[in-house]
UniProtKB/TrEMBL annotation:
Domain (Apiosidase-like catalytic) ranges: 30-394
Signal sequence residues: 1-20
Organism in which the protein naturally occurs: Microthyrium microscopicum
Pfam name, any one: Collagen_bind_2
Protein name (Swiss-Prot/TrEMBL): DUF4038 domain-containing protein
Organism ancestry: Eukaryota, Fungi, Dikarya, Ascomycota, Pezizomycotina
Amino acid sequence: MPFPGYVLVFCGLFATFCSSLNLPGYALQANGRLFETEDGKRFFWQADTAWGLFHKFSLEDADRYLTDRASKKFNVILATALTQWGPKDKNRNGDLPLISQDPTRPNEPYWKHVDRIVEMAFQKRIRIAMVPAWGGTYFFSSSNKPGILNGTNVKEFGHWIGKRYPGLPKLLVADINPIWTNKSAVVDDYRNRRSKTHKMTDYSPVYDKLAEGLISGEVEAGIDQETTPAMITIHPTNQWFTPGPIAISSAFFDNRPWLTFDASQTGHTNYQPNPPMAWWNAEKPYEAIEAMYKNPKPRPLIDNEAHYENRYINGKNRDGKNTVWTAKDVRIGNMQSVFSGASGLTYGSDNVMQGYIPDVYKHDPSGPAVSVWSELSLAGAGQMQWIQKVITDRAAFYSRIPDQSVIIGDVGAGEEHITATRDSTGSFIMVYSPTGKPVTVETKSLSIGQVKASWYDPTNGTYSSFEYLTGGSSQRLFSPPKSTTHPDWVLILEVV
Ligand SMILES: *[C@@H]1O[C@H](CO)[C@@H](O)[C@H](O)[C@H]1NC(C)=O
Ligand SMILES: *[C@@H]1O[C@H](CO)[C@@H](O)[C@H](O)[C@H]1NC(C)=O
Ligand SMILES: *[C@@H]1O[C@H](CO)[C@@H](O)[C@H](O)[C@H]1NC(C)=O
């Protein structure tokens, strides 16, 4: 079915910028802990991260990038409207985002370019999850001075964004802590293992106003907030200081009606124990998912920034060895998160995330310098679709639950952690073994019937079935096949 193109809707006689991107069917909605499209089709969030997509990419680049991502079944791209490079930085076409750095005066050519990329993405079945404004640039500057967005103007800016881009999921805050003002002081305290010396300023009232503006803008664009509430979360920063809420959106904004989906950032680093969250660790992304899943308010939940492929482990080459996260690391982490109850996954690779186009932009040395265009074909980027596939190949999408009690014995930790998910109505059990070690499975939750058993290869999406004998104990030992290319396998038991 062809997707409709966008239509510019003009309203009001004297309105200068009174237009909305009208993309029928764009909005996502929540169904319990899962996403679905606004016409009620199930939706598995498979996101890539390209913060600089609107800013650093020409239309031709955007087409090349989005075509590649669509071919790998990505259906969401995280991108930033007012970017981390600030209001004085021109986009690839030479346009500034704002006139006179005034957040209430958008510079139309800049936003036309954003429009075209949003529309181009949707024609390729990809939705943009938009960061309206990068927190640590626009709410306060990197030198910790007040930014140009504040309680006075943020609602008007939010309204304008909500009205122009209705239906796009929005990520507020953007890799910063809403109650965090002086990053260097926080980091200083953390590194020196000192109790808190820094002062915190609570920016959450400003983000509340941003959300209020986004929603009123969507209403003006004609989106019924009763049937299709705006999808809004925050993109928290990593858990790299104490005290403070843990790095998940609901830890900050759980009581806000505008928080319609939950998100974590498990980040790129394995921190030393950092009480009270000793476990915050890039190799244990499933723990943040488990924490969100326990929330009695059922919202869709996502790890919005898990370790990026080809990024240095522990940040800017701190281990001195240039070791990077690999396809195996990101595959294991995302598979564990999804089996632990996430509504999808977020992938990122270091150079695509930052939009490193050699000879045009400088490289941020958080990983080796590799052109965006070569990095598109990293193995992990191609493997994320097999995580989506193993979930969406099962008809029982809405009744899937995480259930570790299916695994008998030690479930292990970090990259060895075994995760299990099953249909609460009994049609399947799936167990992901990242190490390929044999695993004992409690099968009694399966409904009565003939069971089809198979091993699923998470590096290429291939099933190989094996014989499953009925009768005997409900606890069964399964030994994954051996492969020279990868250790991990998914066991699938399904009633046919
Ligand atoms: C908010 O920011 C604008 C600049 O964008 C500035 O003119 C105004 O004084 C600020 N208001 C407050 C209350 O800080
Ligand atoms: C931020 O913290 C650093 C490190 O403690 C300190 O040197 C600096 O003065 C602080 N800046 C502001 C604006 O408070
Ligand atoms: C997938 O990988 C397995 C090895 O793990 C191999 O046997 C199989 O042929 C591959 N299938 C495809 C479709 O590439």
